[in-house]
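Structural prep section.
Before we set up the soaks we want a predicted structure of the protein with TXE in place, mainly to decide which crystallisation condition to try first. Input record follows.
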Amino acid sequence: MSNPERFQNLVDGQYRTSSTGRWLATANPFTGAEWAEVPQCGAEDAALAIEAAHRAFSSGPWPKLSATSRGKLLRRLGDLIARDAEKLAAIEVRDNGKLYAEMLGQLRYLPEWFYYFGGLADKIEGGVLPSDKPQIFSYTKREPLGVVVAITPWNSPLMLLTWKLAPALAAGNTVVIKPSEFTSCSTLALMALVKEAGFPDGVVNTVTGFGHEVGPILVSHPLVAKVAFTGGDATGAAVYAQAAKHIKHVTLELGGKSPNIVFADANIEHAVKGAISGIFAASGQTCIAGSRLLVQRSVYQEVSEKVVDLARTAKLGDPMLESTQVGPITTQPQRDKVLQYIDVAREGGAECLLGGKRPEAAELANGWFVEPTIFGDVNNQMRIAREEVFGPVLSIIPFDDEDEAISIANDTPYGLAAGIWTSDIRRAFRVTDQVRAGTVWVNTYRAVSFMAPFGGYKQSGIGRENGQVAIEDYLQTKSVWVNLAEDVPNPFVLR
Ligand code: TXE
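Run finished without errors. Recording the tokens verbatim:
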């Protein structure tokens, strides 16, 4: 690699490489070429970051700041992200290959999280409790947890970090971030803005490196109060088990196998676009991918053909170009996993209606591309319908009536999201009530907001990000009892 750009960690307000002296190369998914390096941290680096975060939580300016001042810092960080949105989006694209148009949109939207949670910082209220004891005044305080470890994946590094960072800081915690080894650069670039915004040293720290090396050290460290994780379900389960041994607070967001359900009474043109945006946007690398398209049998042929026709027109190419509609897969191992699942689908008997391989165009040869791929007549028991692929692979599953649609939709260990396409308002409400998913979209798909709680039912996760409820997962409650009586009652019995 000729002159790679080097990014450093932020620990205790200082830029640091790593105690190992090693660097980790990161590649551009469109060219396959390594373009940057980040420190390959080890145990010592992880411990330093956590100790810094713990010091910043326990002493110094951060715990003394008023909640209003904390909120102002968050809003300042939001302003700086808005100012540098284009620069950060370009780093994201180089590192993870998603479309510049999508990343720029995300980066321009992310400040809203810092404004929203910055505004919430001084509205975290306890309560005055009624008391059944004479002359006792009692109230609750809402307090931060302590050091939060935020572990993030490679598909939307800054967005998924923001969903953790904004509420964690608004609540008064300090944070150690462990970005994915594949896409650490944008997180490290963000640290310059954390410094510029004026957060005290040690309030936000980063540790880069391999998840299996530094992850367990961070998760099990005695000074860590909470782990907020987004990633795959196997890693999530390991993180959960390890955190349990040390009784840490945990929130998990673990992806899904979301049903996108098209009823015969739907506006078919809209539903077809919804199906495409559910699976081919971001090359299917989203936890909310509508990877199971459930279509009522009477419109099955029409919908399948229209989805295939529209997907066929998708322009694959350089993710930096405005004309590109589908970019590469972020990592080579993930590209290989997607291709393996295409084999799994074929072997399972699904009919390939489109794609099913790497594209042949010479200009795409170096990138980790997979053609938009559609399988028809999929049975919900096939592996392709049960396991998360995390790529541009759609399974179309026919159903006969509403009951069957609901039963197929819920026949999955996951429960992150679902889409319903119908013109019947009563059906929309009926099905919404019965689908076991943390987010349900009616006649739309893949919409998120800082205001709307987001998280999984079943094995898609624990806890909620976004919306006012998100801050609850970064707080704990203290009950305070004040005795206003002149005397102290019998000390040998429970009061
Ligand atoms: O994720 P990992 P991977 C799914 C998707 C994908 C699969 C595997 O199906 O194919 O997960 O992706 C850190 N202790 N999703 O392997 O391993 C790691 O460094 C602590 C869905 O890339 O879950 C990274 O920072 N941390 C998902 C983070 O965990 C560990 C988004 C996520 O990586 C660790 C991405 C350990 N032992 C993939 N091992 C979604 N929910 O959107 C790794 N990590």
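Observations: The longest helix spans residues 67-83.
Flagged for discussion at group meeting.
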